[in-house]
């Protein structure tokens, strides 16, 4: 009996040990969760800085390029060709990260299933890839052409309205859930566009520039909604292949347009020696970096943090414009920037934000109700004690 009692612990001790082990597991799980969240937030800050710097840097570099090379469509065509690097870069990441390594051909065939059972056929290329190639070209060309007309601060803040346009199109076409706060955000975006137009006094060059940016934001919203409607959601490899296919479409079918613009002298340069190849390559690299972070950044951080990088590019462009151009930050322009930024932030709220707010308010009400009875109980329990203590003194 003594030996058994030494070898096997008592039931109470066993329960305490089991509780301690379960508590240790819970603590480990909480520690792992907290470490994972800290890593996500850390990578989120890095991605936000990368998105902000690449987007604002490409915008400023495009503005600088047009001083020497006035050819926005040629710049769009040249930068879109760099999308071909998406799938090779993704495959390099797959080789370094994945345990089961596949050959480029095997990975390509697996990603081609995104286009259908038959893969990327000629019919699929013209029906599912070509329309998106046109929308991609129009989005970038209208954005770059607007930079020639107005300052980069107005261009970057007006392009933020594309998120409001995405919500409106998704609500109409995709029958997404109606959210009052997003309707308010869309109203803010429209009001900001009108105020931004009024800030410059409705001059022709500013009205044309604002119309070009709004058109670019509309093309971007149409691209995103049609992608979700026709193709659904894509994995990382499928998205990389799709963007590389857009580059192939650009080389095969869009190359003729810059050539025509060159010979008709719409976008003409005297010799290739005066072309600022450093600015062109720098703009293309920054735009490629922005698209990589925008499409693949959700693998390491939260999507909301990525969207914040686009908003933060507005004050960066405003600071640069303040020192490099003659922009006037009057009260109307500042209010328009604030309204559009506020609308963009409202669109970042999750769909169930109202449920979370209601739950938080109900929890606060329950805690207040629990605190009040406890305080009353202490006061009530103190009264009989005093009466009991006073009775002996009265009898004596």
TrEMBL record:
Biased composition (Basic residues): 386-396
Membrane listed as a keyword: yes
InterPro entries: EamA_dom, EmrE-like, Solute_c_fam_35_mem_F3/F4
GO cellular component: membrane
Keywords linked to the UniProt accession: Membrane, Transmembrane, Transmembrane helix
Ranges where the record places region Disordered: 374-396
Protein name: Solute carrier family 35 member F3
């Amino acid at each position: 009996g003594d030996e058994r009692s030494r070898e096997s612990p008592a039931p109470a001790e066993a329960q305490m040990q089991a509780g301690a082990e379960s508590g240790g597991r819970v603590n480990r799980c909480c520690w792992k969760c907290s470490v994972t969240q800290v890593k996500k937030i850390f990578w989120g800050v890095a991605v936000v800085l990368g998105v902000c710097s690449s987007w604002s840097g490409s915008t400023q570099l495009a503005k600088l390029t047009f001083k020497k090379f006035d050819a926005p469509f040629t710049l769009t065509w040249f930068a879109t060709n760099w999308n071909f690097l998406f799938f090779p870069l993704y495959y390099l990441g797959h080789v370094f990260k994945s345990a089961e390594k596949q050959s480029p051909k095997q990975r390509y065939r697996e990603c081609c299933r995104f286009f259908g059972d038959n893969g990327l056929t000629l019919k699929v290329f013209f029906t599912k890839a070509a329309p998106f190639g046109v929308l991609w070209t129009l989005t970038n060309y209208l954005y770059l052409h607007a930079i020639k007309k107005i300052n980069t601060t107005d261009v970057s803040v007006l392009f933020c309205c594309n998120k409001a346009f995405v919500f409106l199109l998704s609500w109409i076409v995709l029958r997404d859930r109606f959210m009052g706060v997003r309707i308010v955000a869309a109203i803010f975006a429209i009001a900001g566009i009108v105020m931004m137009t009024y800030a410059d006094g409705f001059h022709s060059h500013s009205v044309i520039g604002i119309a070009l940016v709004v058109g670019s934001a509309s093309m971007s919203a149409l691209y995103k909604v049609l992608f979700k409607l026709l193709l659904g959601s894509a994995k990382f490899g499928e998205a990389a292949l799709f963007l590389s296919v857009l580059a192939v479409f650009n080389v095969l079918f869009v190359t003729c347009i810059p050539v025509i613009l060159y010979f008709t002298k719409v976008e003409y340069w005297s010799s290739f020696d005066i072309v600022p190849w450093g600015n062109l390559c720098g703009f293309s690299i920054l735009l490629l970096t922005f698209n990589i972070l925008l499409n693949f950044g959700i693998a390491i951080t939260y999507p909301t943090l990525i969207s914040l990088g686009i908003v933060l590019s507005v004050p960066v462009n405003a600071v640069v414009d303040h020192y490099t151009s003659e922009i006037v930050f009057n009260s109307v322009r500042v209010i328009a920037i604030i309204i559009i930024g506020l609308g963009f932030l409202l669109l970042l709220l999750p769909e169930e934000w109202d449920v979370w707010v209601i739950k938080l308010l109900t929890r606060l009400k329950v805690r207040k109700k629990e605190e009040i009875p406890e305080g009353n109980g202490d006061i009530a329990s103190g009264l009989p004690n005093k009466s009991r203590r006073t009775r002996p003194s009265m009898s004596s």
